[in-house]
């Protein structure tokens, strides 16, 4: 069986398909500047494919009496357990935000595609790969439209006067696409300085100069910062 031409040809096709799937998923991640890229996902997908081939080989060996015998489900279970560690490593915390959840899910998907390819399920693999890439591309735009304020940030505003219209300040902030989730305030009576610390969901735009201009109309704006 080791040198059977049909077996070798099928193995090459499966491994090639695994490389293609990992490459496509890696291109999608790299196009969004994520840490998980082509090499990582190709290795995951190809390794899962090879282990799935090994699982089938063990099963066939047990049936054909080639001396190789074992439980093929243990190999698949081992792949799934190992992928959990890789997925956990892709998840990072940056300030108030959690990043890498989608990349962790794609790692899981790459392993699943590899196992399916190793089992010879080419059509289901192709359908899932096309659906995953299409959903990743389309749903990002849908999320940006439905939930424009998606990232958690800290907004620090400082005024050099005590009397402020807090409702007007909040209205200006929300007019610029922010969602206010919390507010802390600090007031220095000696210097007559008021500091506002907002927890907000921020829009994806990077230029907040118009927000600064509008806030400056509500008082003597002395400081502005927005951080993760």
Automatic annotation (TrEMBL):
UniProt keyword annotation of Oxidoreductase present: no
Membrane topology value: Multi-pass membrane protein
Principal subcellular localization: membrane
One GO cellular component term noted in the UniProt record for this chain: plasma membrane
Keywords noted in UniProt: Cell membrane, Membrane, Transmembrane, Transmembrane helix
Cellular compartments annotated: Cell membrane
Organism superkingdom: Bacteria
Family: Belongs to the MgtC/SapB family.
The protein's name: MgtC/SapB family protein
Origin organism lineage: Bacteria, Pseudomonadati, Spirochaetota, Spirochaetia, Spirochaetales
């Amino acid at each position: 069986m080791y040198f059977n031409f049909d077996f070798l040809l099928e193995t090459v096709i499966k491994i090639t398909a695994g490389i293609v799937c990992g490459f496509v998923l890696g291109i999608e991640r790299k196009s969004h500047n994520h840490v998980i890229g082509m090499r990582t996902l190709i290795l995951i997908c190809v390794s899962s494919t090879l282990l799935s081939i090994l699982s089938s080989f063990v099963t066939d060996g047990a049936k054909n009496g080639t001396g190789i015998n074992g439980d093929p489900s243990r190999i698949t279970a081992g792949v799934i357990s190992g992928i959990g560690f890789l997925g956990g490593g892709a998840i990072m915390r940056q300030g108030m935000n959690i990043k890498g959840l989608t990349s962790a899910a794609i790692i899981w998907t790459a392993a699943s595609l590899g196992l399916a390819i190793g089992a010879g399920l080419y059509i289901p693999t192709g359908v899932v790969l096309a659906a995953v890439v299409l959903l990743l591309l389309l749903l990002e735009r849908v999320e940006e439209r439905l939930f424009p304020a998606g990232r958690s940030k800290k907004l620090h505003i400082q005024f050099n006067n005590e009397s402020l219209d807090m409702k007007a300040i909040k209205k200006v902030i929300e007019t610029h696409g922010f969602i206010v989730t919390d507010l802390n305030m600090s007031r220095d009576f000696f210097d007559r300085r008021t500091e506002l610390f907002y927890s907000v969901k921020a829009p994806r735009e990077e230029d907040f100069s118009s927000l600064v201009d509008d806030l400056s109309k509500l008082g003597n704006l002395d400081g502005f910062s927005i951080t993760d």
